[in-house]
Every structure is written in C-alpha cells, then in structure tokens.
C-alpha cells in the first residue's frame, strides 16, 4: 500500500513534468520559428543585391576607373520600391554603367515566340527610365530571320541596343544578319558609345582559345560579352587585348560574364566538399540549370569569392584586361522573396 501511495502520488507530478516539458518544447519551436521569420523579414533582399553590386563597382573602379559594371535583369532594383514610377535608387544607378535585359521582345515564355505584351510593357516601364542615363543592352532569343529583324528594329525604335540570339546556349556567332545591326568603324571606348554587341559566353564550339579568338576577331561588334574561361583555362591579358579591335579596325570593348547570384560547380572556386548547406551560403540547386546553386549573396564569405581581394573573381577580370563585368542573376532576390 505504501508503494502504491507513492506511485499514485508520483504519477500526477510526472504527468505535470512531462506536460511542462512538452509545452516548453512547443514554445521553444514556436520561438525558433518566429525568430526565423523575423530574421527573414529583417533582410531586405533587394537592398542587399544593390549593396553587392555597389561593392563590386567600388572595388573594380578603384583599380580601373573605366571598368564597366553592367547588371543583367532584376531591373526593378533601379527604384527604391520596385515600381517603375518609384524613386530612383541613385546610389545603385551611380555604381553601374549600363543594364542588360533578356527576353524583352522574344523568349520570355519560349524561344522565338513574342514576349507577352503585358510583360514587355512592364519591363519597358523601367528600361525607359534608365535609358536616359545608362545604355540598355537587350538580348532576345529568336531564330527566324523575320523575328530577328523585328527584334533589332523594335529595340532600336525604343532606344536600346540589342542582340538576337538564335541559340539560348549563347554558344555561337549568328550568321544572320551578315553584319551586326548598326555596324560602324568607330572607336568604342565607353559602353555609352556602343551600337551593338555579341553575347558569346559559352565557347563549347571552339576547341582552342586560338580558334575562339580568330572567330571573334573577324567580327565588327562594338562589344563582346564572353567568359573568362575556355575549357577551364583562363584567357590571358594578351589574349583579351587581341579581341579589342574590330575587323574593320575600330576599337571595341570586351566585357566578361560573371554570375553573382548563383554559385556554379564548374568554376575554379568550387570545392569538392561543397553541397547545399555546405558552405552555409549555398541554399538550393537551380532545377532549370543543374550545377548552378542559389546563394545567400549577402553572405560575407560569398562576397569575398566575388570581389575585394587578390584571389577574387573580379580581380581575375581586372588582371585579364577585361573592360568590365556583365553581372548575372541580379534577380536572385526573387528566389528569397518568394
């Protein structure tokens, strides 16, 4: 009986302890969830991307004042509230030299298909504000001659320079038109002077750097957008210098593509142990582009890979005599907002 009394006495206490423990765990989880939500809400993803671009610009221009910074897509960043009629984000605009935009007239939903008018008008609302002070570079994805002609004509009418890419992979020099739209023999020393450009960031069709260089040298584009590497080998300063003269003798700019909103597992900085969560700034693989990973672009460690030191990506571009950087995945803020 004594034992039974102890058990009966202890049972309510045990239940009370377990109940308290369960309640504490629930409260703890709720607190952690709330804290996570508050931390997420505390990050202004658009402001962080602006700051990232500004940082890259300040670092590069401190070493070469003429180094051009051109963010591609994410055009909403030019205003503080993300509306086309909003207040201009002047510090961001002052840090860039031009803007790039894909799929404006063709390719938004599918290649060689006109972009829906509502989407076109939405994007042009931003582009028309920025074009008064910065050059606008549009890449449309279309392959028929009729659509390529319409793309060049529409962009020209709206005050943008453009490239009609007949391969989404950006791995070729189109044979049509036979000469670049707006071809000229002028010396192009600033992106503001450019009348056309070639977007050729995937050199897979060229087996050697010499082959690639000779193909590009034979063109009359004012600006070449290319990658730093061919077959995992960097282009040297001497090789990039060879590309800075058009076939007709005029000088041109050579700009290097650099993804800053995603990490790419085929880049020199990627380590064999890296995966989602390791390091912490790698968030998720892009399902549309295997090998590309969404990153917390505001993370200090990721930033140090991109700029700010002698081993950074930006420093490699400067060392190789590129005239600027074409920054991609600027719209990476959309992933985190959603």
Describe the structure.
It is a single chain. The chain has helices at 2-42, 45-63, 90-95, 117-130, 145-157, 209-217, 237-242, 300-306, 313-319, 333-337; strands at residues 68-71, 98-102, 135-141, 161-165, 198-200, 223-226, 229-230, 233-234, 253-259, 262-264, 282-285, 292-295, 324-328. By secondary structure, the chain is of the alpha/beta class. Strands 1-13-9-6-5 form a five-stranded parallel beta sheet, covered by helices on one side. The longest helix is centred in the N-terminal third of the chain and has 41 residues, at 2-42.
Shape: globular
**Helix fraction bin:** 25-40%
Task: Give the uncertain stretches in residue-range form.
Answer: 1-23
- Strand tally is 13
- Gyration radius, in Å: 26 Å
User: Main β-sheet: number of strands, strand sense, barrel status?
Assistant: 5 strands, parallel
Task: Throw out a few tags for this protein.
globular, three-stranded parallel sheet, five-stranded parallel sheet, alpha/beta, disordered N terminus, 338 residues
Short description:
The chain has 338 residues and is α/β, with parallel strands linked by helices. It is built from ten helices and 13 strands.
